[in-house]
Amino acid sequence: MFYLIKDIDTQFSRALTPITPLLLLLTRLWVAWVFFNAGMLKFQSWDSTLYLFEYEYQVPLIPWRIAAYLGTATELIVPVFLALGLLTRPMALLLFIFNMIAVVSYPLLWEKGFFDHQLWGMMLLVNVFWGAGLLSLDHLAGRARKPSRLME
Predict the structure, then answer these.
(1) Cα–chain center distance at 82
(2) Residues with Cβ < 8 Å from 92, sequence gap 6 or more?
(3) Strand spans (E) along the chain
(4) What letter does residue 135 receive in the DSSP assignment?
(5) Cα dihedral 28/29/35/37 (nearest 10)
């Protein structure tokens, strides 16, 4: 019985291995798109952003104005790295922590947007644990560091 289970699992693993890079790319692009769009909205309506950070969001430990600048910069810069698959693990971890801070800082989010933030958090953790995959600049950089057989 256990051999049958192991055999089925092995067959599924072999079948899914070729599409794993697509899954990793999808998770990166999805989350990058969501956070980048949020950053663009903050940037385009800067007065509203400052108001929200001063009166609505309750970011712990740092002053609201610094939180507004850091939050907007994070949402505009980190998703670009994530989409490209460049420094994917640290960028995904940074955005995961940012996502957690957003949930903690904005209690009104719990009613309508908490599920979305959970989904994005899980997608980010996929990239923290498994990296960016074959379809990324991280992978290309890793290949470039390995010596070519032609050079031997």
Answers:
(1) 6
(2) 28, 31, 82, 124, 125, 127, 128
(3) none
(4) S
(5) 170
Q: How far apart are CA 62 and CA 105, in angstroms?
A: 11
Among 133, 101, 134, which Cα is nearest to 120's? 101
Euclidean distance between CA atoms 16 and 103, whole angstroms: 33
Q: What is the DSSP string of 62-73?
A: S-HHHHHHHHHH
Distance, in Å, from the CA atom of 116 to the CA atom of 25, rounded to the nearest integer, reads 19
pLDDT tens digits for 59-116?
989 999 999 999 999 999 999 999 999 999 999 999 999 999 999 888 777 777 889 9
- Tokens encoding 139: 């992978």
**Which residue is listed with tokens 């950070």?**
53
C-alpha span between 79 and 95 (Å, rounded): 8
